[in-house]
Amino acid sequence: MPADQELWLAIRNGDEKAYATLFERYHRVLYNYGCKLTKDTDLIEDAVQDVFIDIWRLRNNLTAEITSVKFYLFRAVRRRIQGLVGRLGATDELDLLSEKTLTDYNDDPALIARESADLLSKRIHTLITSLPPRQMEVLTLRYFDDFSVHEIAILMEINEKSVRNLLFKAISSLRERRDWLIISLLPPVFVLGLF
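Request: output the structure for the sequence above.
Response:
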C-alpha cells in the first residue's frame, strides 16, 4: 500500500489510479470528520467532493513538500465546510444518536455480545456528541484521528493553549458523566432487565 506522500506526488504527475486510491482512503474519514462540524450531510458530501475535485483540477500546482496529506485534507474539508455553512446559513447543530431498542435476544450469546457492544458504542458516541461542538472536534481530532496538539491548533485556527484547554474541558466533562456508561458495561441480561 503506497504511502500518502507517494500518492500525492503521483497525483501531481497526473496518475489517476493514485488519485482514486487517495480518494478511497480518505473519503469516508473526511465525511465522518465533517459530521462533527455540521449535521447537513449533503453539505458535507459536497465539501469532500469539492476538495478532491480541486486536488485533481489543480494537481499541477500542488506542493511537493507536504508533510502530512491527511492534515492537508482535514484542513481543506474544514475550511470548505466553514465556507459553505457561512454562505448557505446552515447551522452547526449536531444530531444526537437515538438509541436502538434491544430486542429479540433469543439467548444467542453472539447476538447478545454484538448488541451489548453496539449499545456501548452508541452510548459513548452520544456522550461525545453531547459535548460542545469545539470540544467534540478537538477530542475527535486528537484521539480518533491522531493529530498532534500543534496540528489541531493550525487546523482549527486557534493557539495550542486553547487546544489543550478544550481537551481538558472535554475530558473532564466525560469523566464527570462516566457513571452513565457503567450500565453499558454490565452483563447484557442484567442491562435488559433495567430497561
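The chain has ten helices and no strands.
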